[in-house]
Amino acid sequence: MPTSIESLFRPDRYPLSSKYDPRWIVDLEMGPNPLWQLEDLLTEMRLRPGQRVLDLGCGKGATSVFLARELGVEVVAFDLWVSEAELRTNLEAAGVAAQVTPVHGTVLDLPFGDGEFDAILSVDAFEYFGTDVHLLPRLLRVLKPAGSLGMSTPALREDPYEAAPPVCVTDLFGWEVAAWHSPGWWARHWTLSGMLDDVTARMQEGGSEDWLIWSRSLEQDQDSPVTRMLEDMGAGIGFALVTGTKTTDVAHSTVKRASSTVIRPAAASIATASTQRAGCSGSPASAIATSSRRRRSASVRLGP
Looking at the domain that runs over 5-160+177-219+237-274, which CATH code has it been given? Predict the structure, then answer.
Protein backbone atom coordinates (compact mmCIF):
# COMPACT_ATOMS: atom_id res chain seq x y z
CA MET A 1 0.00 0.00 0.00
CA PRO A 2 1.92 3.06 -1.22
CA THR A 3 2.12 5.98 1.15
CA SER A 4 3.16 9.50 0.18
CA ILE A 5 5.01 12.14 2.17
CA GLU A 6 1.63 13.76 2.92
CA SER A 7 0.79 10.79 5.16
CA LEU A 8 3.24 12.22 7.69
CA PHE A 9 0.78 15.07 8.32
CA ARG A 10 -1.39 13.64 11.13
CA PRO A 11 -3.05 16.45 13.10
CA ASP A 12 -5.59 14.18 14.80
CA ARG A 13 -2.91 12.01 16.37
CA TYR A 14 -0.03 14.50 16.61
CA PRO A 15 -1.36 18.07 16.57
CA LEU A 16 1.91 19.73 17.61
CA SER A 17 4.11 17.72 15.24
CA SER A 18 1.72 18.51 12.40
CA LYS A 19 2.70 22.16 12.60
CA TYR A 20 5.95 21.21 10.88
CA ASP A 21 6.39 20.56 7.17
CA PRO A 22 6.91 16.80 6.74
CA ARG A 23 9.58 17.53 4.14
CA TRP A 24 11.55 19.50 6.74
CA ILE A 25 11.35 16.56 9.14
CA VAL A 26 12.47 14.14 6.42
CA ASP A 27 15.38 16.40 5.49
CA LEU A 28 16.62 16.20 9.09
CA GLU A 29 15.71 12.55 9.62
CA MET A 30 18.07 10.12 11.29
CA GLY A 31 15.42 7.58 12.21
CA PRO A 32 11.62 7.18 12.43
CA ASN A 33 9.80 10.48 12.94
CA PRO A 34 11.32 11.87 16.16
CA LEU A 35 8.63 14.50 16.68
CA TRP A 36 5.91 11.87 17.02
CA GLN A 37 7.91 10.08 19.70
CA LEU A 38 8.71 13.33 21.48
CA GLU A 39 5.15 14.65 21.45
CA ASP A 40 3.91 11.43 23.05
CA LEU A 41 6.77 11.31 25.56
CA LEU A 42 6.05 14.85 26.73
CA THR A 43 2.61 13.80 27.95
CA GLU A 44 4.45 11.98 30.77
CA MET A 45 6.60 14.98 31.74
CA ARG A 46 5.98 18.39 33.30
CA LEU A 47 8.13 20.92 31.50
CA ARG A 48 7.60 24.65 31.91
CA PRO A 49 8.67 27.64 29.82
CA GLY A 50 12.11 28.92 30.74
CA GLN A 51 13.43 25.61 32.03
CA ARG A 52 16.82 24.37 30.84
CA VAL A 53 16.61 21.08 28.92
CA LEU A 54 19.33 18.76 27.61
CA ASP A 55 18.32 17.15 24.29
CA LEU A 56 20.61 14.13 24.39
CA GLY A 57 21.41 12.61 21.00
CA CYS A 58 19.51 15.38 19.22
CA GLY A 59 20.68 14.39 15.73
CA LYS A 60 20.24 17.22 13.25
CA GLY A 61 18.12 19.22 15.66
CA ALA A 62 14.45 18.59 14.85
CA THR A 63 13.60 17.68 18.45
CA SER A 64 15.48 20.69 19.79
CA VAL A 65 13.54 23.01 17.48
CA PHE A 66 10.29 21.43 18.65
CA LEU A 67 11.18 21.83 22.34
CA ALA A 68 12.11 25.49 21.92
CA ARG A 69 9.06 26.41 19.86
CA GLU A 70 6.35 24.37 21.53
CA LEU A 71 7.45 24.50 25.17
CA GLY A 72 9.42 27.74 25.34
CA VAL A 73 12.33 26.03 27.09
CA GLU A 74 16.05 26.73 26.79
CA VAL A 75 17.68 23.78 25.04
CA VAL A 76 21.19 22.38 24.78
CA ALA A 77 21.27 20.27 21.59
CA PHE A 78 23.89 17.60 22.30
CA ASP A 79 25.11 15.04 19.76
CA LEU A 80 28.20 13.03 18.90
CA TRP A 81 27.62 12.38 15.18
CA VAL A 82 26.44 15.81 14.05
CA SER A 83 28.84 18.73 14.19
CA GLU A 84 28.10 21.96 16.04
CA ALA A 85 28.38 23.84 12.74
CA GLU A 86 25.71 21.72 11.04
CA LEU A 87 23.46 21.92 14.07
CA ARG A 88 23.87 25.68 14.30
CA THR A 89 22.95 26.09 10.63
CA ASN A 90 19.76 24.05 11.13
CA LEU A 91 18.82 25.94 14.29
CA GLU A 92 19.37 29.33 12.69
CA ALA A 93 17.26 28.32 9.69
CA ALA A 94 14.46 27.34 12.08
CA GLY A 95 14.71 30.65 13.95
CA VAL A 96 15.56 29.17 17.35
CA ALA A 97 19.28 29.91 17.60
CA ALA A 98 18.65 32.24 20.54
CA GLN A 99 16.98 29.43 22.52
CA VAL A 100 19.07 26.43 21.50
CA THR A 101 22.81 25.94 22.02
CA PRO A 102 24.50 23.22 19.93
CA VAL A 103 27.19 21.17 21.69
CA HIS A 104 29.24 18.37 20.16
CA GLY A 105 30.37 15.68 22.58
CA THR A 106 30.00 12.23 24.09
CA VAL A 107 27.67 11.12 26.86
CA LEU A 108 30.69 9.47 28.49
CA ASP A 109 32.10 12.89 29.33
CA LEU A 110 29.32 15.45 29.62
CA PRO A 111 30.79 18.98 29.60
CA PHE A 112 28.20 20.42 31.99
CA GLY A 113 28.04 21.41 35.63
CA ASP A 114 26.30 19.50 38.40
CA GLY A 115 22.55 20.02 38.43
CA GLU A 116 22.62 22.24 35.37
CA PHE A 117 19.40 20.97 33.77
CA ASP A 118 15.76 20.84 34.81
CA ALA A 119 15.12 17.98 32.41
CA ILE A 120 16.95 15.57 30.12
CA LEU A 121 15.25 14.15 27.03
CA SER A 122 16.51 11.61 24.52
CA VAL A 123 14.65 10.48 21.41
CA ASP A 124 15.79 7.36 19.53
CA ALA A 125 19.33 7.39 20.92
CA PHE A 126 19.28 5.91 24.42
CA GLU A 127 19.68 2.34 23.19
CA TYR A 128 23.26 3.15 22.20
CA PHE A 129 24.49 4.14 25.62
CA GLY A 130 21.71 3.74 28.17
CA THR A 131 22.05 0.00 28.73
CA ASP A 132 25.37 0.59 30.53
CA VAL A 133 24.79 0.39 34.30
CA HIS A 134 27.38 3.15 34.73
CA LEU A 135 25.51 5.61 32.51
CA LEU A 136 22.80 6.91 34.83
CA PRO A 137 25.16 8.14 37.56
CA ARG A 138 27.09 10.12 34.92
CA LEU A 139 23.96 11.44 33.27
CA LEU A 140 22.00 12.29 36.40
CA ARG A 141 24.92 14.29 37.75
CA VAL A 142 23.92 17.16 35.44
CA LEU A 143 20.20 16.92 36.34
CA LYS A 144 18.76 18.87 39.25
CA PRO A 145 17.22 16.93 42.17
CA ALA A 146 13.57 16.22 41.29
CA GLY A 147 14.43 16.92 37.65
CA SER A 148 12.81 14.88 34.88
CA LEU A 149 14.43 12.23 32.69
CA GLY A 150 12.57 10.88 29.67
CA MET A 151 13.49 8.88 26.61
CA SER A 152 12.08 6.91 23.71
CA THR A 153 13.90 3.98 22.17
CA PRO A 154 13.19 1.15 19.71
CA ALA A 155 11.78 -1.81 21.61
CA LEU A 156 10.57 -5.37 21.25
CA ARG A 157 7.51 -6.23 23.28
CA GLU A 158 9.25 -9.47 24.26
CA ASP A 159 12.66 -8.55 25.62
CA PRO A 160 15.55 -9.91 23.51
CA TYR A 161 17.08 -11.45 26.65
CA GLU A 162 13.88 -13.31 27.45
CA ALA A 163 12.89 -14.52 23.98
CA ALA A 164 14.96 -14.98 20.86
CA PRO A 165 14.55 -11.87 18.68
CA PRO A 166 12.72 -12.57 15.42
CA VAL A 167 14.99 -13.42 12.52
CA CYS A 168 13.38 -10.78 10.32
CA VAL A 169 14.56 -8.13 12.82
CA THR A 170 18.06 -9.43 13.46
CA ASP A 171 18.67 -9.90 9.73
CA LEU A 172 18.13 -6.17 9.27
CA PHE A 173 19.60 -4.66 12.42
CA GLY A 174 22.04 -7.27 13.71
CA TRP A 175 23.69 -6.57 17.07
CA GLU A 176 21.61 -3.41 17.64
CA VAL A 177 18.59 -5.55 18.53
CA ALA A 178 20.26 -6.65 21.77
CA ALA A 179 19.53 -3.13 23.09
CA TRP A 180 15.90 -3.02 21.97
CA HIS A 181 14.68 -3.88 25.42
CA SER A 182 11.09 -4.14 26.56
CA PRO A 183 9.54 -1.42 28.73
CA GLY A 184 9.74 -3.76 31.70
CA TRP A 185 13.48 -4.16 31.26
CA TRP A 186 14.01 -0.40 31.14
CA ALA A 187 11.84 0.15 34.21
CA ARG A 188 13.87 -2.38 36.18
CA HIS A 189 17.17 -1.00 34.88
CA TRP A 190 16.31 2.54 35.98
CA THR A 191 14.87 1.41 39.30
CA LEU A 192 18.02 -0.54 40.19
CA SER A 193 20.10 2.62 39.83
CA GLY A 194 18.69 3.87 43.13
CA MET A 195 18.66 7.36 41.63
CA LEU A 196 15.19 7.69 40.11
CA ASP A 197 11.69 7.87 41.56
CA ASP A 198 8.31 7.48 39.87
CA VAL A 199 9.64 5.44 36.97
CA THR A 200 7.10 4.75 34.22
CA ALA A 201 7.62 2.62 31.12
CA ARG A 202 5.28 1.69 28.30
CA MET A 203 5.17 0.66 24.69
CA GLN A 204 4.02 3.64 22.67
CA GLU A 205 0.48 3.00 21.57
CA GLY A 206 0.46 2.80 17.79
CA GLY A 207 4.25 3.04 17.64
CA SER A 208 4.59 0.16 15.21
CA GLU A 209 1.99 1.74 12.92
CA ASP A 210 3.83 5.07 13.13
CA TRP A 211 7.10 3.43 12.13
CA LEU A 212 5.39 1.64 9.24
CA ILE A 213 3.84 4.87 7.93
CA TRP A 214 7.24 6.53 8.15
CA SER A 215 8.96 3.68 6.33
CA ARG A 216 6.39 3.58 3.55
CA SER A 217 6.60 7.34 3.03
CA LEU A 218 10.39 7.25 2.61
CA GLU A 219 10.99 4.01 0.76
CA GLN A 220 11.08 4.03 -3.04
CA ASP A 221 10.32 0.31 -2.90
CA GLN A 222 7.03 -0.15 -1.05
CA ASP A 223 7.97 -3.80 -0.50
CA SER A 224 11.31 -2.95 1.12
CA PRO A 225 12.81 -5.27 3.78
CA VAL A 226 12.11 -2.75 6.55
CA THR A 227 8.49 -2.30 5.51
CA ARG A 228 7.96 -6.07 5.28
CA MET A 229 9.52 -6.57 8.70
CA LEU A 230 7.24 -3.97 10.29
CA GLU A 231 4.18 -5.45 8.61
CA ASP A 232 5.09 -8.91 9.87
CA MET A 233 5.94 -7.82 13.40
CA GLY A 234 2.84 -5.74 14.04
CA ALA A 235 2.55 -4.62 17.66
CA GLY A 236 5.50 -6.81 18.63
CA ILE A 237 7.87 -3.96 17.76
CA GLY A 238 7.73 -0.23 18.36
CA PHE A 239 9.09 2.27 20.86
CA ALA A 240 9.46 2.17 24.62
CA LEU A 241 8.69 5.47 26.35
CA VAL A 242 10.37 5.70 29.75
CA THR A 243 10.34 8.51 32.32
CA GLY A 244 11.55 9.08 35.85
CA THR A 245 12.33 11.78 38.39
CA LYS A 246 15.75 12.22 39.97
CA THR A 247 15.48 11.31 43.61
CA THR A 248 16.11 13.89 46.29
CA ASP A 249 16.90 11.19 48.85
CA VAL A 250 19.55 8.77 47.57
CA ALA A 251 19.87 6.95 50.90
CA HIS A 252 16.24 5.79 50.85
CA SER A 253 15.48 5.79 47.15
CA THR A 254 15.74 2.04 46.59
CA VAL A 255 12.95 1.32 49.07
CA LYS A 256 10.75 4.03 47.60
CA ARG A 257 11.13 2.91 44.01
CA ALA A 258 10.05 -0.62 44.75
CA SER A 259 6.50 0.72 45.03
CA SER A 260 6.69 3.64 42.60
CA THR A 261 7.70 1.89 39.37
CA VAL A 262 4.87 1.67 36.85
CA ILE A 263 4.93 -0.44 33.70
CA ARG A 264 2.07 0.75 31.55
CA PRO A 265 0.70 -1.48 28.80
CA ALA A 266 -0.44 0.27 25.65
CA ALA A 267 -4.19 0.59 25.29
CA ALA A 268 -4.06 -1.46 22.11
CA SER A 269 -4.11 -5.25 22.40
CA ILE A 270 -0.75 -6.97 22.74
CA ALA A 271 0.20 -9.01 19.70
CA THR A 272 1.85 -12.37 20.31
CA ALA A 273 2.22 -13.50 16.73
CA SER A 274 4.10 -16.73 16.18
CA THR A 275 6.42 -14.90 13.81
CA GLN A 276 8.11 -13.27 16.81
CA ARG A 277 9.82 -16.48 17.78
CA ALA A 278 10.03 -18.25 14.47
CA GLY A 279 11.04 -15.30 12.32
CA CYS A 280 9.02 -13.29 9.80
CA SER A 281 8.07 -13.97 6.24
CA GLY A 282 9.81 -12.40 3.28
CA SER A 283 12.92 -11.02 5.01
CA PRO A 284 16.11 -12.19 3.27
CA ALA A 285 19.13 -12.71 5.51
CA SER A 286 21.18 -10.36 3.37
CA ALA A 287 18.76 -7.43 3.63
CA ILE A 288 20.19 -4.17 4.93
CA ALA A 289 18.11 -1.58 6.80
CA THR A 290 18.46 1.80 5.17
CA SER A 291 16.21 4.82 5.29
CA SER A 292 13.99 3.83 8.21
CA ARG A 293 16.97 3.95 10.60
CA ARG A 294 19.76 5.74 8.73
CA ARG A 295 21.27 7.26 11.83
CA ARG A 296 22.47 4.06 13.42
CA SER A 297 25.02 1.79 11.80
CA ALA A 298 27.72 -0.69 12.68
CA SER A 299 30.17 2.19 12.95
CA VAL A 300 28.43 3.65 16.02
CA ARG A 301 30.81 4.63 18.80
CA LEU A 302 30.21 6.12 22.19
CA GLY A 303 33.25 8.34 22.42
CA PRO A 304 36.34 9.55 20.64
Answer: 3.40.50.150
Length of the chain (residues): 304
Phi, psi angles (nearest 5°) of residue 276:
-65, -35
C-alpha 237: how far from chain center: 13
Pick from 45, 263, 55: nearest CA to 148: 45
- Of 117, 34, 28, 128, the closest CA to residue 76 belongs to 117
Q: What is the mean pLDDT of residues 34-60?
A: 97
For the stretch 136-181, pLDDT in tens is: 999 999 999 999 999 999 999 999 999 999 999 999 999 999 999 9
Q: Is the dihedral of CA 170, 172, 178, 183 positive or negative?
A: negative
- 219 beta partners: none
Give the C-alpha separation, 295 to 107, whole Å. 17
Task: Judge contact between 147 and 165, C-beta under 8 A.
Answer: no
How far CA 188 is from CA of 37, 68, 106, 256, 302, in Å, comes to 22, 31, 25, 13, 23
Q: Are 149 and 80 in contact (CB under 8 A)?
A: no
DSSP letter at 266 equals P
User: Taking a C-beta distance cutoff of 8 angstroms, is the pair 182, 159 a contact?
Assistant: yes
Cα separation of 290 and 297, whole Å? 9
Closest by CA position to 86, among listed 40, 28, 134, 132: 28
| Eight-class DSSP state of 140 | H
Using alpha carbons only, give the angle 256, 131, 269 rounded to the nearest 5 degrees: 75
Q: How far apart are CA 59 and CA 69, in angstroms?
A: 17
**Strands 196-203, 117-123: pairing kind:** unpaired
Among residues 192, 187, 198, 193, the alpha carbon closest in space to that of 46 is found at 198
